[in-house]
Amino acid sequence: MENLNALLDGFSAILTPGNLLIALLGVTIGTAVGMLPGLGTAMAIALLLPITYGMEPTQAFIMFGGIFYGGMYGGSTTAILLNTPGQSSSVVTVLEGFKMARAGRGGQALATAAIGSFVAGTIATIALVFVTPITVEFAIGLGAPDYFAIMVMALVATASVLGSSRIRGFASLLFGLVVGTIGIDAVTGQQRLTYGVPELANGIEIVTVAVGAFAVGEALWLAARRRNGTDEIIPVGRVWMGKSDWRRSWGPWLRGSALGFPFGAVPAGGAEVPTFLSYVTERRLSKHKDEFGKGAIEGVAGPEAANNASAAGTLVPMLALGLPCNATAAVMLAAFQTYGIQPGPLLFEEQSALVWTLIAGLFVGNAMLLVLNMPLIPMWVKLLRIPKPYLFAGILFFASMGAYATSGQAFELYILLALGLVGLGMRRFGIPMLPMIVGVILGPMAERQARMSLQLSGGDLSGLIGGPVSWVIYGVIAVIALWPLVSWLRRRSRAAKDRELVAA
Amino acid sequence: MTTGSDAVEQAAQERPAEEAGRAPDTDTTDEAVVAEHPKQPDFAQLWVCGFLGLLGALVIVDAARLGGFAASNDPIGPKPVPIILGILLFVVAAFYALDVVRGGHGEDEGANAGQHFDWKTIAALCGVFIANALLIDWLGWVISGSILFWGSAIVLGSRKYVLALAIAVVLALGTFYGFAIGLGLGLPAGVLQGIL
């Protein structure tokens, strides 16, 4: 009840003309940036972060709420119309969405994605309101060793569960951890990995890493392949859904939301697994199984809902534990930190009004998207017709502006370029980027917790294992780490059985 | 889950086909996109292993230099974490190399592996980017930002020199007035100080 009152206060803070305008601005710019191929929600926030520097925290967070949902919405539009998933969570949407667009049902695909995102976003944000305080209560009882264990789990899980190759996931993670180590050690004040460069003493900002690897990397990647001109864009007619589309969509929306939120809320659950699960579930349950693979609306409705719900779910560990598990949450956390706010269990006590305004902002942004963008989709699609040279010149322009404005030093631009080259390499070799991003932000946090734990135990390594919570978590880590071994053994025994059958 | 990963593979296989079907670009060498990616291991990936190994060495060399003093409030000091990271980097580099030799590849079935890599354009784009970094403090954001936009657009294939320049100047002036003067963002005026 107390939370609901706080949420109502949050709404009353938002419902002023000025703040609504900011929310509108956030939704609009978020959609625009999210639609740009190769970028996504995280990039929308990272590139737009400098705009909020001149604002009060409340206004800035209202804007983030808008950008958050706007960016996701933009990403799914691009996925459906261009056949290029901007982020791995949109991979599944592309499967049926692009086929629908090809078959002249692009309007319906976009509509079910938009309404599904709204439904899932609303459900997941309501769930967020109720789950986060519970998580906070649980988190207050946790000590440094438990936090350390949770962070290690998040790191190992993002590196090994997501993506197709574990070794590449770990390579990406380690690079991120090394980047996170650069700078002055918070405890002893010694410089690590700066190699005497004074500008490196403050470390490398997570936003610089994200913008460098994603935005600059994407521009270099375009340069590498010189695929100029515009992609084939399928024209969209009116964005609407017929009666049968509604009938076929509402079930997948609800099931997708139910699948997405818990995965998002668990550290390192991610959006990939629930979107796949949703796709598979809908294919199994559908009365139109023959349409799957040719453009079934259920295959867009379910995964899109799962995607949105899981994104909202990732805000639970971000707000309650200070634990970002995807690129978007990592950038959001960085945004919090620029205002001197540290997410974690104490956040709800210390910055209660701000948090609830952010959550109310999520509701408002989500609703605005539905009302405003459904009719505006054909106009948004024009954005995709901007020739690639101008599009990426603009991205480089804004990325440089943001990096310079943040630090006031031209040196930041060289770091941006260096990370862009790393991003280029990662694209070329198919190395996932998420582990790197999570490593940059979680690595230093995990080190701090580990050193705090060891301080309590006087340097004895047993200090890293705290109460039952950390035991359970280390158990989970062991399962994640040993899983390939188990599945390999199972495959082997199955193969052996097959051989026996053949022999018999 | 199996059906899910099948779906990914399906998507990955379909994408090159899409690219092949796309109309060829005006002045680019895109044949490589169409070409089948080679069956033999993609040995270029060994560069990644080399990079990881080098990074590991840099991390350990730097860590060795750190004073490993242990205070009562910090029994392990700043040293162990980089050393662990360095060792892990070596381990991952080794396993990565093993994976490459066995024919492993990254996401999308390594679909990008066989593609033509246009180093000249990359170098030109980096050059434009560095020019902005070198000039921004002296010439100011309006001029260096215009150069950045115009140069990038030309390098990336735009042939409408005047239009690109017009967009560049409008964007640079707009962002300067909007962000630096409007929102108080730290963008330098440079030589145009007093004129803008």
TrEMBL record, chain A:
The keyword Oxidoreductase is assigned to this record: no
Family annotation (Pfam families): TctA (PF01970)
Domain DUF112: 20-437
Superkingdom, taxonomy of origin: Bacteria
InterPro entries: DUF112_TM
Keywords linked to the UniProt accession: Membrane, Transmembrane, Transmembrane helix
Spans traversing the lipid bilayer: 20-49, 109-132, 138-162, 169-188, 200-224, 318-341, 353-377, 389-407, 463-486
Keyword Flavoprotein: no
PANTHER family linked: TRICARBOXYLIC TRANSPORT PROTEIN
Name of protein: Tripartite tricarboxylate transporter permease
Provenance organism: Glycomyces niveus
Automatic annotation (TrEMBL), chain B:
Signal peptide extent: none
Transmembrane segments: 43-61, 81-98, 122-150, 162-187
Domain of life: Bacteria
Domain named DUF1468: residues: 48-188
Region feature Disordered, mapped onto this chain: 1-30
Pfam families reported for this sequence: TctB
Protein name (record): Tripartite tricarboxylate transporter TctB family protein
Compositionally biased intervals (Basic and acidic residues): 15-25
UniProtKB keywords: Membrane, Transmembrane, Transmembrane helix
